[in-house]
Amino acid sequence: MPAGNQYLDNFMKVYSSLPIEERKLPVVVIDDSPINWNMAYLEMKNNTAIGAKIGEKLVSLKII
Predict the structure, then answer these.
(1) Which member of 1, 6, 40, 53 has the lowest number of beta carbons within 10 Å of its beta carbon?
(2) Cα dihedral 28, 30, 35, 37 in deg (nearest 10)
(3) What number is the average pLDDT over the span 48-54?
(4) Does residue 1 form part of some domain?
(5) d(CA 15, CA 51)
(6) pLDDT for 48 beyond 70
(7) Do 54 and 44 touch, CB atoms closer than 8 A?
(8) How many domains in the chain?
(9) What pTM does this model have?
(10) Rounded distance, CA 56 to CA 5, Å?
(11) Residue 16 resides in a domain
(12) Residue 23 domain-assigned?
């Protein structure tokens, strides 16, 4: 499966149940940059290298 998309299904299960305001809050820090839920969604959906890092980090933190 493509790099940024391999975690997308699990991510979407959590993301879709979050309140809209919650999606604006940081969920993870990648390369010293805070990433909110909306940014994480875009990166993972667009299959970017950062999306893959985000997915790996969210799984390691047991968020998704």
Answers:
(1) 1
(2) -50
(3) 94
(4) no
(5) 14
(6) yes
(7) yes
(8) 1
(9) 0.88
(10) 11
(11) yes
(12) yes
| Mean pLDDT computed over 49-62 | 95
Q: What is the tens place of the pLDDT at every residue in 3-45?
A: 557 899 999 999 999 999 999 999 999 999 999 999 999 999 9
Distance CA 1, CA 11 (A): 15
Asked if 6 and 54 touch (Cβ cutoff 8 Å), the reply is no
3 domain residue, yes or no: no
CA dist 7 → 14, 57, 61 (Å): 11, 10, 13
By residue range, what is the domain housing residue 42?
8-60
Q: What is the pLDDT of residue 4?
A: 57
Residue that is written with structure tokens 């950062």 in the block: 50
**44 vs 41: CA distance, rounded Å:** 5
